[in-house]
Amino acid sequence: MKILISYIGIVLMLLVFNNNNLSAQRYWTFELHGGWAGNIPLPLRIKQQGHPDIYIKRAKFYSEPFISPYYWDWRFCKHIDKHSIEFEAIHHKLYLDNKPPEVQRFGISHGFNILTINYGYKFKYFLFRNGIGSVLMHPESTIRDKVYPEGPGFDIKGYVLRGFVYNTAVAKQFYFLRKRLYLNTELKATFARANAPIVDGTATVNNIALQAIVGLGVRFAGNKKKAASSTQE
Fold first, then answer.
1. Residue 68 has pLDDT above 70, yes or no
2. In CATH terms, is domain 2-20+27-220 a member of 2.60.120?
3. Reported pTM
4. Is residue 81 classed as helix, strand or coil in its secondary structure?
5. Phi, psi (degrees; rounded to nearest 5) at 13
C-alpha cells in the first residue's frame, strides 16, 4: 500500500509540474476494450489448516476470455500534453488446469480483477504506460472436498482486495470523427501476486498474463490554454 501511495504521489507531481505550462493541451478520455489473455505457468501454493501444503511448481491457468463472463478492460484518463494519469480496471479470469488429486476445483472466474493507477507517456506514434495496484478477486474452490462458497457474480461479500500487481503496456491509437473517437490497440502484460481465500486457509496465486486488447475510446472536455501575451500596446 505504501508503494502504491508513493507511486500515485510521483505521478501527481509530474502532472502538476506540466500543469504549470499554460499552453499545455488538456483533455479526458474513456476507453472500453475486449481482448485475449494468456497466462505463464508459475508456482501455486495452497495452505490449508490441518493438512500439508499443496505446491504446484508450474500451475497452468487458462482464461477463456471469449466465454461469459468475458474478458474486458476499461480505462479513464486525464491527459496533459504527452503525459497522462489513468485508472484502469481489467476483468481477468483464472481456471487451474493441472489440478492435483486434493484439488477438485480452483478458479477465480468472477474476476481476478486488476485495478491499477497508471502513468502514460506518448512518444511519437505510440503510448507507453506503467502502473501499479491491487487485485479485486472472487475465488471459487473445492479443496479436499471443502467448498469455498461461490455466490453470484455480483455478490459483494464474495470479493476481496488482495495482493500487488504491476501493469505495463504499449498502445497505438487510430483517430476519426475529428479526433473525438479513436480505435485503441494495445499489447500489455500484468504481473500479480495475491492470496486467495479458501476454506481453512489461503492459496498464493502468482500470475503473469500477456494480453492483446482492442477497443473504442472517446475524447472529451479538451482545451488548449494560451499563455497571456506580454506585448504592450
1. yes
2. no
3. 0.85
4. coil
5. -65, -40
